[in-house]
Design a protein that fits this description.
The structure is a single chain. The protein is an all-alpha fold. It contains 6 helices and no strands.
């Protein structure tokens, strides 16, 4: 129960940060996509079935903040949550590199599929090159934020460590004495 409350608070803070604290795309440099990081953290913290539900909830909140057609974000978030669960079941790694790589992949997939899906539904023509360029730029910023968050959480969880002082040198077993 406490874990679910923590996940709900994390989702709320992440959506608020994404919608109001993250600066807009400045000079075409991209911006971090916080919902991708949320999905990766949820996949690492939850039971697989529950993680897909939480991912759909993240998409539902993003749909509520969007001015586009409803349902696209929910579908993408649930689909990406399912993909993350399959990846986690095969990979079983919660290393820094794995978390950052998954955040980048989710960001690229979400930021590329969302505008393309919207364009298909509304009959607009889009330039896939510009969409993928924007998705990759956003993924780079997302990787930086994910790296900082994962390192911060590990340091916070681990606490301060004491340095090793006056450690004796290892003795080597050799045939020559």
């Amino acid at each position: 129960m406490l874990r679910n409350v923590g996940i709900l608070v994390m989702i709320y803070l992440g959506v608020v940060a994404h919608s109001s604290l993250v600066p807009a795309d400045v000079m075409g440099m991209g911006r971090p996509f916080v919902p991708a990081i949320l999905l990766v953290f949820i996949a690492a913290a939850c039971h697989p079935n529950l993680a897909i539900v939480w991912a759909g909830f993240v998409g539902f909140l993003l749909d509520g903040l969007s001015t586009e057609r409803l349902g696209i974000q929910v579908g993408l978030a649930a689909m990406l949550g399912l993909g993350l669960q399959l990846t986690q079941s095969l990979w079983r790694s919660r290393s820094l590199i794995a978390m950052v790589a998954m955040s980048m992949l989710v960001c690229v997939a979400w930021r590329a599929l969302s505008p393309m899906s919207q364009a298909i539904l509304t009959g607009r023509v889009v330039d896939p090159h510009s969409i993928l360029t924007d998705a990759v730029q956003d993924a780079a910023w997302t990787a930086v934020v994910a790296c900082v968050l994962v390192l911060g959480l590990r340091i916070f969880r681990q606490g301060p460590t004491e340095p090793v002082v006056n450690r004796p040198a290892p003795r080597w077993n050799t045939a020559v004495r």
